[in-house]
TrEMBL record:
<dbReference type="InterPro" id="IPR036390">
    <property type="entry name" value="WH_DNA-bd_sf"/>
</dbReference>
<protein>
    <recommendedName>
        <fullName>HTH lysR-type domain-containing protein</fullName>
    </recommendedName>
</protein>
<dbReference type="InterPro" id="IPR005119">
    <property type="entry name" value="LysR_subst-bd"/>
</dbReference>
<keyword id="KW-0805">Transcription regulation</keyword>
<dbReference type="Pfam" id="PF03466">
    <property type="entry name" value="LysR_substrate"/>
</dbReference>
<dbReference type="GO" id="GO:0000976">
    <property type="term" value="F:transcription cis-regulatory region binding"/>
</dbReference>
<comment type="similarity">
    <text>Belongs to the LysR transcriptional regulatory family.</text>
</comment>
<dbReference type="GO" id="GO:0003700">
    <property type="term" value="F:DNA-binding transcription factor activity"/>
</dbReference>
<dbReference type="InterPro" id="IPR036388">
    <property type="entry name" value="WH-like_DNA-bd_sf"/>
</dbReference>
<keyword id="KW-0238">DNA-binding</keyword>
<feature type="domain" description="HTH lysR-type">
    <location>
        <begin position="3"/>
        <end position="60"/>
    </location>
</feature>
<keyword id="KW-0804">Transcription</keyword>
<dbReference type="Pfam" id="PF00126">
    <property type="entry name" value="HTH_1"/>
</dbReference>
<dbReference type="InterPro" id="IPR000847">
    <property type="entry name" value="LysR_HTH_N"/>
</dbReference>
Length: 296
């Protein structure tokens, strides 16, 4: 059995675009050459890798199993090409859930890029579930997420500690007391959407009391939660990273809660993707920043 890197490159382009014409453009081949490369790869493996539907393609189970190792093989080949190079160039795509992206990674990537002008650096933002799924598709080099995740294709490494806080507008009835009472869940709440790490931690902390929770507004960003609570929409819960400035400015008031809202933030990598020099350099850069700041 003989496979070529070009065949794997074509396969990955087809897996991403699910269309021969668009994949052909991505790898600078004609559509017929792209189809021929796929046919040769499937013949060499003895398995079809896609289900055909008209002009469209969809990865089947065998194709999904090949995707990670194929990406790893291409990454390793590119790493070999630049073995004598440095970590100053190349492409790095980092995924992060919303709080981490907005309050940690955006500034960290900017400082990392300052002396790496030849590098192509990208930050992809979504909730924990969305970022995990993109990493499983090998569309990211690594990811940082707020919620725990368990998948055999992913390696999860504890990165830093974080804490959620409950907060209200200054004129909320509970703001004066500075703490939640036994009737806390009888109040209205503004929460992040299903799939966000923040929402998962809060729901888990409530335990059996979650059925009493009155969520009147669900939104897809931490900033929107903070602004809705400030406008009187109810109580909110977010990472302290996300509301520190609002709390310091008095736009929001932190309320002591009876729940354990501490959590671990995680670094995720794909088990079958090799870490190039640029990835390793960024991990070291970010870990150094975290050590300088102390645990959050």
């Amino acid at each position: 059995m003989t496979l070529t890197l070009r065949q794997l490159e074509v396969f990955l382009a087809l897996a991403e675009h699910e269309h021969v014409g668009r994949a052909a453009e991505a790898v600078a081949l004609s559509p017929s050459a792209t189809s021929s490369a796929l046919a040769a790869l499937e013949d060499a493996l003895g398995h079809a890798l896609f289900d055909r539907a008209g002009r469209g393609l969809r990865l089947n189970a065998d194709g999904r199993r090949l995707r990670g190792p194929a990406r790893a093989a291409l990454d390793a080949a590119r790493e070999a090409e630049t073995l004598l190079g440095t970590d100053r160039g190349g492409r790095l795509i980092v995924g992060a859930s919303t709080t981490i992206a907005n309050h940690v990674l955006a500034s960290a990537l900017a400082s990392f890029a300052a002396d790496r002008l030849a590098a192509d650096l990208r930050l992809v933002v979504g909730n924990t579930r969305e970022i995990r799924d993109r990493l499983l598709d090998v569309a990211l080099d690594l990811a940082y997420v707020e919620g725990p995740t368990s998948h055999p294709e992913l390696v999860a490494t504890p990165w830093r500690e974080d804490r959620l806080v409950v907060f209200a507008a200054p004129d909320h009835p509970l703001a004066g007391a500075g703490r939640l009472g036994a009737d806390a869940l009888d109040h209205q709440w503004v929460l992040r959407e299903e799939g966000s790490g923040t929402r998962e931690v809060f729901v888990r902390a409530l335990g059996d009391d979650v059925d009493r929770l009155q969520c009147v507004l669900e939104v897809g960003s931490s900033e929107a939660v903070a602004r809705a609570v400030e406008a009187g929409g109810g109580l909110g819960v977010l990472s302290r990273l996300a509301v520190a400035r609002d709390l310091d400015a008095g736009r929001l008031v932190e309320l002591a809660s009876p729940w354990d809202l501490s959590r671990t933030l995680w670094r995720l990598t794909h088990r079958h993707a090799s870490a190039g020099r640029l990835v390793e350099a960024f991990v070291e850069h970010l870990d150094a920043d975290a050590s300088g700041e102390g645990a959050t």
